[in-house]
Structure formats: C-alpha cells, structure tokens
Amino acid sequence: MKKILVPIKMVLDANVRPRVKADGSGVDLSGMKLSINPFCEIAIEEAVRLKEKGLAEEVVAISIGPAKAQDILRQAMAMGADRARLIETDRPIEPLTAAKLIRIVVEEENPDLVILGKQAVDDDCNQTGQMLAALLDWPQATFASAVAVDAGTLHVTREVDGGHQTLALPLPAVVTTDLRLNEPRHCSLPNIMKARKKVLDITPVANCGLDMAARLNVLGVKPPEPRKAGRRVANVSELVRDLRAAGVI
Amino acid sequence: MTILLLADHDGHTLGDATARAVSAARDMGGAIHVLVAGENVGPIAQVAANVSGVDKVLVADDPALAHLLAEPVADLLVGLSADYVAVIAPATSIGKDILPRVAARRDVMQVSDITRVIAADTFERPVYAGNAIETVQSTDVLKVVTIRSSAFDAAPQGSVAAPVESVSLPARAWKARFVSEELTKSERPELTSAQIVVSGGRGLGSAQAFQTVLAPLAECWHAAIGASRAAVDASYAPNDLQVGQTGKIVAPELYVAIGISGAIQHLAGMKDSKVIVAINKDPDAPIFQVADFGLVGDLFTLVPELVRALG
Ligand SMILES: Cc1cc2nc3c(=O)[nH]c(=O)nc-3n(C[C@H](O)[C@H](O)[C@H](O)COP(=O)(O)OP(=O)(O)OC[C@H]3O[C@@H](n4cnc5c(N)ncnc54)[C@H](O)[C@@H]3O)c2cc1C
Ligand SMILES: Nc1ncnc2c1ncn2[C@@H]1O[C@H](COP(=O)(O)O)[C@@H](O)[C@H]1O
C-alpha cells in the first residue's frame, strides 16, 4: 500500500492521577504532563512496522489539538512516521468533529489505511475510528491485536468479549488498536534529531470550514464517590469471619 | 417516545448485558423495543421478549448478520432509527463496535458507557479511567448511548411475553468479511455477571499458578476468574479475563485482588465492587487504598490457607 494515516491525540499522561477542578468544570490539566495517548502510540508503531516490512511506503501522523501537540507529532516522526500534520485548535474536540476533520484529511491524502487508537484515555469515548469508517463508508476492524496484509487484503484479529475474532478487509480500511497489538519502541537520540527535520504542516482549524459546535453539553464534572476506608486483617481466619459478617460469602 | 435497544448475544444465548441495558432504558423513560439481529436467532428473541419492561422485540434473521459485523448491523439500525428517539446498546465489544457507526451516519454524538440516567437526554459517564464523572446532556435529535453493564441491575424475567416482529435487512455488499473466531471456553460463571470475582496479577508469576492457586479458590465460591493486564500480557490468563479501563468492567458483591498492585487502569474496572479484598505482600501497594479488607503476605501461602479455611 502507498500510505497509512495515523491520527494521534495528546492527553494527560496515563501515569498521572487526574484531579477534578474545584469548580467542577473539568479535570485540571494546567502544568500537568501531556503525552501521546497510549493507544495512538501503538497505532504509530504498527504503521511503522508495516512500512519496515515493505508493506507500506509512507506513514503520515495527524493530530487535532493545540500548538503543543506538535510534541507528540515529533515523537511519532522519531518513531518512524515520515511527516506530520497538525490541525490546530485550542478547543476540546468531540469524536464526531474529530472524525469529520480526519475525513477531510483522508480526502486530501488518499491513504489506503487509517490506524487509530481504540480509545483516548481522557474522554474514554471509543468512537472516533468507527465514526470515521462510517463517514467514509469504509470497512472497520476495531480493537486489533494482530494485523497482517496479504495481496491487498488486511487480516485483523480483534479482541472481543469472548476471546478473539479474525476479519478480512479490502483496502481502504480503518483499524483501531488494542493494547496487545505491539509494544511501542523507544526513540533513539539520532531518530529524535532526524525527526526535527521532517515536515510538520500546520493548518488552523478555521481553514477546514467545519461546524465545530459541540453536541454534548458538559453540565459538570465531579470526582468519583470515595470508598470508605477499609482495614487490614491480621490473618486468614479473621478475613473469613469478616467476609461472613459482611454477608458476601 | 420509543427506545431501540440492540441486544447482545453470542449466537446462542442472550447476554446478561441486555437485561441490564433494559434497566437503563427504563430509567430514560418511554417504550422499549429490543432488536435481536443475527442468524437463526428466533430462540434468543423469545428470551428477550420475556424480559420485564420490553414492549416489543424486532428480529432480523439474516446470514449477513451472523457475526454481528459492524457494517450490516449499522445499516439495519440506521434504517430503523427514524422511528425512535434513542438507539442504545450495552457497552460490550459488539455495542462499542457498532453504535458509533450509527451515530456518525445520523450525524449525532454518541454518549459512551453511561453509568447513570439523570433524564432522557442527560447522563453520567466516567472519564479518565473513572477518576472523574462527567454529567453530559445530548442536544442531538437522536440519542445514541452505550450502557456500562456493571452500573445497572438486570431487569427480571416478566410474566407476559412481548410481541415479536420480523424486520428485514436491505441487501448491500458489505466489505469486511468474517474469517474465524476463537472463543475461550470456561465452566466458570461469566466475569461481568458473577457474584464473586477472584482476580490474579503479575504476582501469580505463571499460568500454572492461575490453575493451582487461583482456580481452587474460585472453585470454593463458584466465582469467575479475572486478571490484570500484566497477567494477561505475560500469558498467565487469556485476554478476555482482563479487568480494567480497557478490559472488562465488573462490580460483583465480592472482588478479591491477588498479587495485583492496583494501578489506576485496573481500579477503573473493579472499584465499584461491593466488597474488595486485597492479598499482596507489599503493604504499600495502592490496591490497599480501595480494599475493604487487606491481607498482607505471600499469596502462595495465604491463598491455599484461605481455601482450607473455607473447605
Ligand atoms: C492505556 C492503558 C490501559 C491499561 N489498561 C489496563 C487494564 O484494563 N487492566 C489492568 O489491569 N491494567 C491496565 N493497564 C496496566 C496498568 O497500568 C498496570 O501496569 C497493571 O495493572 C499492573 O498489573 P499487576 O498489578 O498485575 O502487576 P504489578 O503492578 O507488577 O503488581 C504485581 C503485584 O503483585 C505483588 N506480589 C508479587 N509477588 C507476590 C506474592 N508472592 N504474594 C503477594 N503479592 C505478590 C506485588 O507486591 C505487586 O503489588 C493499562 C495501562 C495503560 C497505559
Ligand atoms: N483530537 C484528535 N486528534 C487526532 N486523533 C484523534 C483525536 N481525537 C481522537 N483521535 C483518534 O481517535 C482515537 C479514539 O478516540 P476517542 O474516540 O476519543 O476515544 C484516538 O486514539 C485517536 O487515534
């Protein structure tokens, strides 16, 4: 195939414990470490591996987000993406809008395959890939744990509730990644240096001519109900006694 | 004011997730129609018709629907959706795969993985792996919603069966093709509906320990077995047992975390359990912060001792 497009999102780093703002307007991101969404990192890795196997010619990373999202695009290029595009906006983007913006880029770039993360670990929506596939009328294989290409057909093994399922898809197609698809590489210093010279094209979102109005009103954000403090039990017999007293066994 | 609910099934039995989604639909208000799509799914439709609160069952029986692939099922739902105020499904691997496709085709935003219904258009849903709860109101004409099963009780079996009606799938050439499927067979109760879940982590150290240490405890309680991501990645347990942000979400009466540290992504999948027990040799493991009962020590001694105490 000629080209793989990989949409990646910048999110609060998965190792940082999110804190809800006191005014209930959202999660506090100021001064926090922002990183590539872990599932998107897996998507980049998979695209780069397909290229390294000679199965794809070019990997293009794209992100919709603030100027700072250039950092994750540079990381994607250090991992092996050939070039990157940023659709710049400071506003939070809903999956439906993200899918529509990615569709515009698909129409310009004509990729054979789009690989997305299955879910962004901030909104936990798990929608964008499926929505993009629907808008393009392309086939989809979500939650991929293995991807193989054979004579222009994609074979994707998916993680489903009862185990695994394998689908065959003609290209072009949309794939979303699950955690076990691969283990992303660490970027070497020479590759980080090389990535600085690769092309990163920035388009203001206003140029896309899309209605960006949110469809969901966020009325409030609160921390989860805290669990009441538990306690240590000294030994197994105390545990059994307490579980019986709690009526759960 | 009618809601269309896509039933979750494996071709033989109606998933418990469907009866739980019926409860969420009842909270939204209005009549409830359940769509059972698949091949030879007449018997499943009969079971759905008996779930209390269901007003009608639509059956779409077609070989093209055999594996509930996203393209044909989304076409079917988009076609039917004009008559409904909401299209909903349990947030299972089937619902998560299909519903966003329906939402995009109808140009509406989906509300994913709701844990509470506040009004027919307003819902609570966890974000950031359950570290924040968002209240969202949909402004779209059609509501497309997936339901987190662990947050709703299953609607009981009713005494009268709802009418069952056939609907047909307009033929079209869909692109993705089913090749094969490997489903884990297990005698144990299903993870997401079990009363008791016994979960193992990296601390178990081997697939064998899942069999020799964890399984006997699960046996005692007729419990389901779960696993952390680290345990699944190390092949100690199959992927469909993973509990967490990206695995299954469970809320049993009793959750026992054995050799699991309690990373936020794991807690996301089990912290709404009624009673949590942690067995871990590290007294500072974060799992103890959510555990009602914490037992510090070596699991290879404590778990067999527990089995003996119960036996
Ligand atoms: C995007 C993303 C999504 C993720 N999704 C999930 C998910 O869905 N589910 C999930 O579980 N994880 C998920 N993770 C991974 C998560 O961050 C942790 O890495 C994982 O949960 C760790 O598993 P663990 O607790 O088994 O292993 P560890 O963290 O290694 O903990 C092992 C524990 O076993 C204890 N132990 C060792 N030996 C013994 C012994 N003999 N007796 C008693 N105790 C012992 C140790 O003290 C330790 O606490 C995700 C991560 C990311 C980035
Ligand atoms: N703002 C964005 N920019 C680029 N890709 C995105 C964006 N939002 C979502 N995606 C892609 O869609 C996937 C799923 O996101 P979500 O549907 O929000 O859970 C992510 O892993 C990304 O691959």
From TrEMBL, chain A:
User: GO: which molecular function terms?
Assistant: electron transfer activity
Domain (Electron transfer flavoprotein alpha/beta-subunit N-terminal): residue spans on this chain: 24-212
Q: Which UniProt keywords apply?
A: Electron transport, Transport
Coiled-coil regions listed: none
Instruction: Name the SMART domains on file.
Output: ETF
Electron transport among the record's keywords? yes
Cofactors demanded by this protein: AMP
Q: One of this protein's GO BP terms?
A: carboxylic acid catabolic process
| UniProt xrefs under Gene3D superfamilies | HUPs (3.40.50.620)
Give the InterPro entries listed for this entry.
ET-Flavoprotein_bsu_CS, ETF_a/b_N, ETF_b, ETF_beta_N, Rossmann-like_a/b/a_fold
What binding partners and quaternary form does the record give? Heterodimer of an alpha and a beta subunit.
Function, as annotated, reads: The electron transfer flavoprotein serves as a specific electron acceptor for other dehydrogenases. It transfers the electrons to the main respiratory chain via ETF-ubiquinone oxidoreductase (ETF dehydrogenase).
Family, as annotated? Belongs to the ETF beta-subunit/FixA family.
Name of protein: Electron transfer flavoprotein subunit beta
What organism, scientifically named, is this protein from?
Answer: Acetobacter tropicalis
At the highest ranks, the source species' classification is:
Bacteria, Pseudomonadati, Pseudomonadota, Alphaproteobacteria, Acetobacterales
Coding gene? etfB
Automatic annotation (TrEMBL), chain B:
- Name the domain of life this protein comes from: Bacteria
Sequence ranges assigned to domain Electron transfer flavoprotein alpha/beta-subunit N-terminal in this UniProt record = 3-182
By what name is this protein known? Electron transfer flavoprotein subunit alpha
Hey, which family's this protein in?
Answer: Belongs to the ETF alpha-subunit/FixB family.
Q: What note does UniProt attach to the cofactor annotation?
A: Binds 1 FAD per dimer.
> Is Nucleotide-binding one of the keywords UniProt gives this record?
no
**Positions annotated to bind FAD:** 202, 228-229, 242-246, 259-266, 280
Q: Which GO terms describe its molecular function?
A: electron transfer activity; flavin adenine dinucleotide binding
Query: What is this protein for, i.e. what is its function?
Result: The electron transfer flavoprotein serves as a specific electron acceptor for other dehydrogenases. It transfers the electrons to the main respiratory chain via ETF-ubiquinone oxidoreductase (ETF dehydrogenase).
Output the CDD domains linked to this UniProt entry: ETF_alpha
Please, one GO biological process term? fatty acid beta-oxidation using acyl-CoA dehydrogenase
Q: Give start-end of the signal peptide.
A: none
Q: Which InterPro entries match?
A: DHS-like_NAD/FAD-binding_dom, ETF_a/b_N, ETF_a/FixB, ETF_alpha_N, ETF_asu_C, ETF_asu_C_CS, Rossmann-like_a/b/a_fold
Q: Which UniProt keywords apply?
A: Electron transport, FAD, Flavoprotein, Transport
Q: Which PROSITE patterns does this entry report, sorted A to Z?
A: ETF_ALPHA (PS00696)
CC cofactor: FAD
